[in-house]
Amino acid sequence: MQRAPWWALLSSGSAPVLLIGGWFVAGLLQGTSYDPVTQTISLLAAEDAPGHWVMTGMLIALGACHLVTAWGLRAAALAGRVALSAGGVSVIVLAWCPAPSSGGSLQHGFVAAVAFALMAVWPLLAARGSGSAPWALRPATAVAASALMVIVAAWFLWELRDDGVDGVAERVLTFVQSLWPFVVVASCRNRLRA
User: Fold this and answer.
1) Which one of 56, 135, 137, 189 is most buried, counting C-beta atoms within 10 A?
2) Taking a C-beta distance cutoff of 8 angstroms, is the pair 192, 168 a contact?
3) What count of other Cβ atoms lies within 10 Å of the Cβ of residue 158?
4) What phi and psi values does residue 33 have, to the nearest 5 degrees?
5) 137 in a domain, yes or no?
6) Number of C-alpha atoms within 13 angstroms, CB side, residue 151?
7) Domain span at 111
8) Does any domain span residue 10?
9) What pTM was estimated for this model as a whole?
10) pLDDT tens per residue across span 116-148
11) Does residue 119 belong to any structural domain of this protein?
């Protein structure tokens, strides 16, 4: 089992920091007209939003983090690394398909759905069946991680339908999906150090 390089730890650890920093700064630029509890992150990235440039840059950097992490995560199964890479590319494409400030966008919704789906399935595809695999790459852990992401995604869809706490649900989903690569890389480094 190969050890994950230090730079994969850096790229995967940067992902959740970039995500939270991006939505925080863009929210400050948006001002009091934006409610992070009921409004989605996508509204911060709308072309006419004051923080559009922050969110565009954050999405590109976040996608790049996922690409770099997938490249360095050699302990994971190839299919999982490909899915994580494709998720990263989808996040970058999402930067070029902003949602409108009002109403919906089929293009934005499709790209976001693809990104969410890839980021939810990659843990399953990355799993290794051997007992020597790091704990985050074991099948039971991978199933639990993907199941959590699917449950939170379903909650987000429910909130969108119901005009509820869309912003909270989306933030939980994106945070979990951006944090999991770091957890996997850390488990790979810890397993091989022990």
Assistant:
1) 137
2) no
3) 13
4) -75, -15
5) yes
6) 7
7) 6-193
8) yes
9) 0.92
10) 999 999 999 999 987 788 999 999 999 999 999
11) yes
